[in-house]
Design brief:
- It is a single chain.
- By secondary structure, this protein is mainly beta.
- It contains no helices and 11 strands.
- The N and C termini lie far apart (40 Å).
Length: 121
């Protein structure tokens, strides 16, 4: 069974930084894409950033220039460095991993339990 465990959330003031970590129970080489989603109270879950097995990254417009997704394959861990945080970044952040074994096969989604990020203004 695949396990994803997020950590690094907390309470910070606007303008400060946090680094979130997502530790996988298997080699992250097994995933085609890993990413971070977030969900604020009363809002839909949204994709914040993603990184492919080749290292290509994508970001939501709202976090471009402030957030950086990276990975350490030796540690089976994906990170989200969050700088210049503001109150609108307050949400539960979830780690996600996608695996597709064949073009004709299904895509499997795995999720962490979430970590709370609260930014006070």
């Amino acid at each position: 069974q695949v396990q994803l465990v997020e950590s690094g959330g907390g309470l910070v003031q606007a303008g400060e930084s946090l680094r979130l970590s997502c530790a996988a129970s298997i080699s992250i080489f097994r995933f085609n894409t890993m990413g971070w989603y977030r969900q604020a109270p009363g809002k839909q879950r949204e994709l914040v950033a993603s990184i492919t097995s080749e290292g290509s990254t994508r970001y939501a417009d709202s976090v471009k220039g402030r957030f950086t997704i990276s990975k350490d394959s030796a540690k089976n861990t994906v990170y989200l460095q969050m700088n210049s945080l503001n109150a609108e970044d307050t949400a539960v952040y979830y780690c996600n991993a996608k695996s597709k074994q064949a073009d004709w096969g299904p895509t499997y989604d795995y999720w962490g339990q979430g970590t709370q990020v609260t930014v006070s203004s």
